Model the fold of this input.
Amino acid sequence: MKDYTLDKLAQEKFIKNYKVKNDKIIINLASKEKYVIPYTKENEEKVLTKMEEQVNNARIKPIGIINKFLVGVSYGALALALYLSIVETAILYFVVAFGLSSFFTYQLVSNQIKVKDLEKQRFFLDNRKLINDNIKKSPNMTLGLDKKIVTQIERSDEQKIFDINLIDSYSLDDLKKLKRNILRFEEFSFDEEDKDKRLEFHK
Done:
């Protein structure tokens, strides 16, 4: 998940993700530090619970009107600086304007990415039981998903395929498609004789 913290102190306690290796749980913190603990099922569940709490408690500071205004102004300044650099060879103006526009644009885009990621995380938490309980019931559950994602799901032997740490490689759109397919499967209630045969998806 993305870093939703607002200060450096919080980053030292914020778990972005983790991996299990050599009987250890290697936790990647928002501070870019690694926190290593012994692997036990209990420890892993504690890490997952902590990550879920982070999502439920996350508050992303919105980009204010002034910041959005500054983005527009910086682009106007960049256009003017580009003109001046051509007409009067005022390269310094262009460099300064480019730096400012890049800075404000980065802030805006970074904020939007965090908002979208948090929306995905919360959608998952609201629908994880539905997805995990039904994902293996039919190959048609993955209808419309990317082949790479379908392969990951088919190769998984775990009963619980999805958790808060494993959905970074999935988009919000992927999760919505999974939910749509599951609800449609429940609505139709068809008997599927060939469990290995997957329907084709046509846009």
In short: Residues 65-113 form one domain. The mean pLDDT is 80. The beta strands are 15-21, 24-29, 34-38.
